[in-house]
Amino acid sequence: MVENKPIIVAQIMGKWLGGGVESSIMNYYRNIDKSKFQFHFICDADSINIPYKEINSLGGKVIIVPPYQKLFKYIKELKKVFRENNYKIVHSNINTLSVFPLYVAKRAGVPIRIAHSHSAIINDKREWKRNWIKNLLKHFSKTFANRYFSCSDVAAISQFGDNIYKSGKVKIIKNAIDVEKFKYNESVREEKRKELGIDNDAFVIGNVGRFVTTKNQTFVIDIFSEIKKQNSKAILMLIGQGPLEGRLREKAQEMNLGEAVIFLGLRNDISELYQAMDVFVFPSLYEGLGMALIEAQTSGLPCVCSTRVPNMAKVTDIIKYIELEKSPKIWMKACNKFTNYERKDYSKMVSGYGYDINKEAKNLENYYCEYVGDLYE
Fold first, then answer.
1. In 32-174, which ranges are continuous DSSP H helix?
2. Are 329 and 194 members of one domain?
3. What domain range is 323 assigned to?
4. I want to staple 145 with a disulfide (CB 3.0 to 4.6 A). Which of 115, 235, 250, 303 is the partner?
5. What's the distance, CA 248 to chain centroid?
6. 97 contacts 137 by C-beta, under 8 angstroms
7. Torsions phi, psi of 345, nearest 5?
8. Mind listing the pLDDT tens digit for each residue in 130-177?
9. Do residues 224 and 248 share a domain?
């Protein structure tokens, strides 16, 4: 790049909680050409699980700012950070809330301001308050951005509207993964089950995601309860953490599921845990894409998910969509169809749909290069 120094991209991360957005951006960071671009991760002060060590080892930097709820302090500190670092690119990953950092970026004279939509907005009474705010703010999502990214067509239309999407201004940046890391491996399956104390003949239902209303793990427990009635060897594996964890634990106890529900917290071995599962259940209220579904399918793991997950997430023939309005018994029957399913490697198919990070990171580089090049024309 200019003077043989990498361009620094300010990645606005909001509250780093170790979720799918953070995983996606880190995947791109690990694979992008760091002689061309480096990342500064700007995170709210109430973040957790920030991988400082890895980011520093890759040459990046973490910058902590006040949480966005303290809006005036947040704006003041962001303005200082933007001006001190003289960023050419600010890439905001906080969906409708991007209006705030991109407003500051424009005021600070940052020339390239990217709004990246990672989620769709679907009206659901369980999320009415959050969705009311999102629907209000999304009308301003285009005000201070001059470039647009999205993880899917659904997320693009939800945040930016039909006109901008159909104009071709929105670039689809897929939630790509290291497909080699997630491909099915029978020996890993056996080792991981042994490590977790799970019998070879156990029927393991899995879910990965933040313990929040959107991910709908309470319904996962309802589904599992029906499965357990049919199969005493069934196990439910919940991977993640979040504000609803206590309630989920209480519900499992109230339904007499006891030790059959395993809470594994945040993990660094998720690719191996997929191998240990038999069915992946994903009844989200809404998703921008559903990165966990891409990972699960890559490992040859059958998936049962809600129809509110975008069709772009369907990249194999081992995924079944069901309406959330259907009863837990209907979901149970869909899961049980995979009881004796023979796993195989789907990594090449997933890569063919554009979810290989080694290829997709080059696309992101090219967009950045194009945008920076425009500044010198």
1. 52-57, 71-85, 99-107, 128-137, 153-160, 162-166
2. yes
3. 179-352
4. 115
5. 21
6. yes
7. -85, 125
8. 554 555 566 666 789 999 999 999 889 888 888 888 999 999 999 999
9. yes
Would you state the structure tokens that stand for residue 359, as one six-digit string? 């290829």
Are 298 and 321 in contact by the 8 Å Cβ rule? The answer is no
| Separation of alpha carbons 290 and 310, rounded Å | 8
The Cα–Cα gap between 18 and 70 comes to 22
Check if the beta carbon of residue 6 is closer than 8 Å to that of residue 89: no
pLDDT above 50: residue 128: no
160 with 230, same domain: the answer is: no
Residues 200 and 152 in one domain: no
Tell me the mean pLDDT in the region 289-311: 93
15 and 152 belong to one structural domain = yes
Environment class of 6 (CB within 10 Å of its CB; exposed 0-12, middle 13-18, buried 19+): middle
pTM for this structure?
A: 0.87
CATH number of the domain at 234, please.
Answer: 3.40.50.2000
Q: Do 103 and 229 sit in the same domain of this protein?
A: no
Determine the Cα–Cα distance for residues 268 and 33; give it in Å rounded to an integer.
24
348 and 363 share one domain: no
> How many other C-beta atoms can be found within 10 angstroms of the C-beta atom of residue 188?
18
Q: Got the DSSP string for 316-369?
A: SSSEEEE-TTS-HHHHHHHHHTTTT------HHHHHHTT-BHHHHHHHHHHHHH
Q: Is the dihedral of CA 359, 18, 119, 164 positive or negative?
A: negative
Q: How many domains, the chain? A: 2
pLDDT value of residue 310: 87
The secondary structure element, H or E, covering residue 280 is strand 279-282
Phi and psi at 304, nearest 5°, equal -125, 115
Give the pair of three-digit tokens for residue 107.
């005021």
In this structure, are 104 and 20 located in the same domain? yes
